[in-house]
Design goal:
heterodimer; A: alpha/beta; Transcription Regulator spoIIAA; Heat Shock Protein 90; 3-stranded parallel beta sheet; B: two-stranded parallel ribbon; 6 helices; 5 strands
Chain lengths: ~300, ~120
């Protein structure tokens, strides 16, 4: 098998950066792929890129391929320090161990382990002091983020687990959480579900954007025989109230929920899976319960 | 009947398996028209899968008005209350009949309007 060398360029979290990630996915989306990631042109990697590449490596391995992260090509010291600190580089062959600091660890969850994931959210993500919130509010935020993990495990059918990573950006004072699965994707799930009740020909005309819009409406669920449809709705509400931003890329669909409302679009490049990318503003004034009049610290 | 949630499952009301345990404990009492009190003292973290199974599922064979009359909830914080209310609201929709053919047609109509 021919070794594919994939150039990893600077990857931020704008739509065109996600398109680059999905293009990389399409280049290696087969069995028996042998891949080497080259970082010589990489000047920055946001957590969405870290987590996507990590998950993609596991996907390739699960399809009997091989992946080498060629760390010798990564010359940007800032990027290297960051991905060594959050444990990503060490997970993929770099001779370094993660250390506790300002980073938020890279995670691979094979199963939905409540205590492990909630501890990560409570102590390593929201509770690490980026934003001063009461314990009660910290717990409330972590509960909302849990809905993302729950959805990924319950609905995607992922065979290789769920991948996540976060980061706090001091200058913008933003807190990021990016969660990726390489499962079926939300639009594919919605279509499969609706095909049971409506004409196949009609359901296949539903666009990715329409399917995402349906999935984000309160009370809609693709689970049969059990109530649901509250998780994404609660998450959406939290994002609105706290003026954050939630972006979802799933198959060819794209959703953005932010202070301006919610928008659903179709993208040219599709991928099999779902990325949930959350940006929270670390402004303490945005994070209060109604009865928390005084600053909670 | 009164049940301490913390004693039964711990301080995290998150996963559906724990919700199912609570449902199994209380469903029979509620079905017989008996009052049940769930005490959330010491529980601090909540998510919808737990409440979907513990409470949302009850609406399969208990009408909402009866459930609200028979099920007493104590010491549940603001976050938990919000999740419970949302779950009850959505479970009631879920257990009602949905015309998915009409839903698909409505979505296609909306798509057509958007592309105009």
């Amino acid at each position: 098998m021919v070794l594919k060398v994939i150039q990893i360029h600077t990857l931020n979290d704008r739509p065109r950066d996600f398109q680059q990630l999905f293009t990389i996915w399409s280049q290696v989306n087969d069995y028996f792929e042998d891949v080497r990631f080259d970082f010589s042109r990489c000047g920055f990697l946001r957590p969405n890129a870290v987590v996507f590449l990590g998950g993609l490596a596991r996907l390739i391995e699960s399809r009997l391929g091989s992946v080498v992260f060629d760390w010798s090509t990564l010359h940007n010291q800032r990027v290297l320090t960051n991905i060594c600190q959050n444990g990503f580089a060490g997970t993929f062959g770099h001779p370094s161990s993660a250390w506790d600091g300002n980073s938020i660890p890279y995670r691979e969850d094979k199963t939905l382990d409540m205590n492990v994931i909630m501890d990560y959210l409570v102590y390593n993500w929201i509770g690490k002091g980026w934003v001063h919130v009461s314990d009660r509010l910290r717990d409330a935020i972590a509960g909302r983020m849990w809905e993302i993990y729950n959805n990924a495990f319950e609905h995607s059918g992922t065979q290789i687990g769920v991948f996540s990573c976060g980061q706090h950006f001091w200058r913008q004072n933003d807190l990021i959480l990016s969660v990726v699965d390489f499962g079926r994707g939300i639009p594919a799930n919605v279509r499969t579900f609706l095909r049971q009740y409506a004409e196949v020909k009609l359901v296949s005309k539903l666009t990715g954007a329409s399917c995402l819009r349906w999935a984000f409406q309160a009370g809609n669920t693709t689970k049969v025989g059990e109530p649901g449809g509250s998780g994404l709705d609660l998450l959406k509400e939290f994002i609105h109230i706290n003026q954050g931003k939630l972006e979802v890329y799933s198959n060819e669909g794209y959703a953005i929920i932010d202070k301006d409302g919610e928008r659903y679009e179709n993208r040219e490049i599709s991928f099999e899976g779902t990325v949930m990318h959350i940006t929270l503003r670390c402004d303490e004034n945005l994070y209060r319960f109604r009865d928390e009049v005084e600053p909670p610290f | 009947m009164k049940l301490s949630i913390k004693d039964k499952i711990g301080p995290r009301c998150i996963i559906k398996e724990d919700g199912q345990k609570i449902y199994d404990e209380i469903h029979g009492f509620l079905k017989n028209g008996e009052t049940v009190t769930l005490d959330f003292n010491g529980v601090s973290q909540f998510a919808s899968p737990f409440f979907n199974f513990a409470i949302g599922q009850l609406l399969k064979d208990i009408v909402e008005a009866d459930l609200r009359r028979l099920l007493q909830i104590e010491n549940l914080n603001e976050t938990g209350k919000l999740v419970v209310e949302r779950v009850i609201e959505n479970a009631a929709k879920y257990h009602g009949d949905k015309d998915y053919r009409k839903i698909v047609n409505d979505i296609l109509e909306q798509q057509a309007n958007e592309s105009d």
